[in-house]
């Protein structure tokens, strides 16, 4: 008999532009087999970018799945084949916030909802920020046309998370982790190129 939680069989039922859905038949500890619906996701990166005034960069974006506007971290999918996660983070910070950073560290790694998806996101801490010149900025398209960027004191972002005004999971985790890391003067964080075994599709 296969060991507990072994995947006995798997059926792909949907493949979209970003995600796929499959149904895995999984062996339970009592020997029974149960169907588990799994959302396959390419993974993502997010960036807690903090300027010299201790402000964090947030982008405001409409999310059709819940029909609301959200304050979020600059972030993006790992949808460029072979692109290192750090390069993706640099690209997203440039494209969404028109900012480059001179100092990068890994702040934390998250499984967003492991009960139903393999989605994982790496959150970076970016500091030593410089604004991108107007002539060098990324040309927005699609939903990014209405994306707006603002800066909020890190302490205010923490308060917004506590008060329920900031609810995007990666943003909440990121600002809380950044506030904690600040208490130790940013020491003890992993280097920006630290291994990431949980990255989907490795």
At a glance:
This protein has helices at 85-97, 154-163, 169-183; strands at residues 7-15, 20-27, 33-40, 44-49, 55-63, 68-72, 75-77, 99-111, 120-131, 148-153, 190-191. It has 202 residues and is of the alpha+beta class. The model has no long low-confidence stretch (mean pLDDT 93).
Count of all domains: 2
Helix content: 10-25%
Q: pLDDT under 50 segments (min length 5)?
A: none
Q: Could you spell the SSE succession in H and E letters?
A: EEEEEEEHEEEHHE
How would you describe this structure to a colleague?
With 202 residues, the protein is an alpha+beta fold. It has two domains: 7-40, no CATH class; 44-191, Nucleoside Triphosphate Pyrophosphohydrolase, CATH 3.90.79.10. 19% of the residues lie in helices and 40% in strands. It contains three helices and eleven strands, in the order βββββββαβββααβ. It has helices at residues 85-97, 154-163, 169-183, and strands at residues 7-15, 20-27, 33-40, 44-49, 55-63, 68-72, 75-77, 99-111, 120-131, 148-153, 190-191. The model has no long low-confidence stretch (mean pLDDT 93).
């Amino acid at each position: 008999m296969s060991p507990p939680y072994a995947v006995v069989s798997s059926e792909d039922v949907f493949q979209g532009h970003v995600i796929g859905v499959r149904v895995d038949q999984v062996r339970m500890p009592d020997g029974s087999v149960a169907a588990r619906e799994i959302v396959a996701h390419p993974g993502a990166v997010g960036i807690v970018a903090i300027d010299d005034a201790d402000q964090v960069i947030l982008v405001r974006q409409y999310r059709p799945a819940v029909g609301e506007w959200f304050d979020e971290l600059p972030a993006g999918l790992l949808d460029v084949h072979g692109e290192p996660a750090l390069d993706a983070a640099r690209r997203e910070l440039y494209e969404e916030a028109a900012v480059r950073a001179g100092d990068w560290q890994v702040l934390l790694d998250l499984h967003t909802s492991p009960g139903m998806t393999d989605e994982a996101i790496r959150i970076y801490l970016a500091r030593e920020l410089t604004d991108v010149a107007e002539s060098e900025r990324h040309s927005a398209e699609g939903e990014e046309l209405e994306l707006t960027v603002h800066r909020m004191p890190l302490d205010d972002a923490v308060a917004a998370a506590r008060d329920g005004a900031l609810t995007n999971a990666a943003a909440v985790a990121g600002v809380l982790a950044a506030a904690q890391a600040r208490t130790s003067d940013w020491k003890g964080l992993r280097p920006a190129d630290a291994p990431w075994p949980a990255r989907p599709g490795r």
